Backbone:
């Protein structure tokens, strides 16, 4: 990497860690930064997902008490569906190849941006009663496949899904969101690694910067205006979508 590319990836990793700690949307920065550093979009997506993995694991660990309150059978089903869906999505990414991913990534970025912008409304929705286990299983499997294929907007999608399925506790929904995100991302990273699409020379330094950014975001993020932060993330997502549309 050139010094400019190295600086861009480090700053993007730090900023992504801050964003994920306070609001989400870190992948809006890691993907374009890694493309700027010379990676094809597919490899940039996989490498950025590796860089963000520690944050998912740390977030899941922070909700141990809420996860302990969930019935073991339901927890095991969640883990199994997350593993299978994440593996399927990552396998689909490798199977489809870089050309297909390059064609679809602007739409995925735009979808993730719209989901993020609409998240206050989505998270306020409730079905009024819990959905059946089959509906819940299918919904989780579909979201896990999406997460294994493209990580952008995953947290918002999971929170919205649990709300629509009737989960009334936001803390429990957050705990499940972090658990599913970390599990499916772990298996997806394993598939990416076996497929040889992770650039470890870029992933490891960026991982360090995301960890530092996550700590700073968790420590000082409450001082930021949520409205301003949300607007900046949406504008960033729209800008990145436009750039990738022009490159296709």
Residues:
């Amino acid at each position: 990497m050139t010094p400019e590319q190295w600086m861009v990836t480090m700053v993007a990793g730090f900023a992504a860690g801050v964003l994920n700690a306070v609001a989400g949307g870190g992948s809006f920065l890691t993907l374009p930064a890694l493309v700027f550093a010379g990676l094809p979009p597919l490899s940039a997506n996989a490498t950025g997902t590796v860089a963000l993995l520690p944050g998912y694991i740390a977030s899941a660990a922070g909700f141990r008490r809420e996860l302990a309150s969930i019935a073991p059978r339901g927890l095991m089903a969640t883990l199994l569906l997350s593993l299978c869906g994440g593996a399927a999505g990552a396998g689909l990414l490798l199977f489809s190849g870089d050309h297909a991913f390059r064609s679809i990534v602007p739409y995925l970025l735009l979808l993730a941006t719209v989901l993020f912008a609409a998240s206050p409304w989505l998270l306020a929705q409730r079905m009024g009663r819990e959905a059946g286990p089959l509906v819940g299983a299918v919904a989780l499997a579909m979201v896990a496949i999406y997460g294994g294929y493209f990580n952008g907007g995953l947290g918002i999608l999971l929170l919205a899904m649990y709300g629509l399925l009737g989960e009334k506790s936001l803390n429990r929904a957050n705990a499940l969101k972090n658990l599913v995100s970390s599990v499916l991302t772990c298996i997806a990273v394993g598939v990416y690694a076996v497929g040889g699409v992770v650039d470890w020379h870029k992933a490891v330094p960026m991982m360090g910067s995301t960890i530092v950014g996550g700590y700073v975001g968790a420590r000082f993020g409450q001082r930021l205006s949520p409205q301003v932060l949300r607007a900046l993330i949406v504008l960033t997502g729209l800008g990145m979508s436009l750039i990738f549309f022009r490159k296709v």
Summary: Residues 40-247 form one domain. The chain has one domain: 40-247. The chain has a mean pLDDT of 83. Residues 72-117 form the longest helix (46 residues).
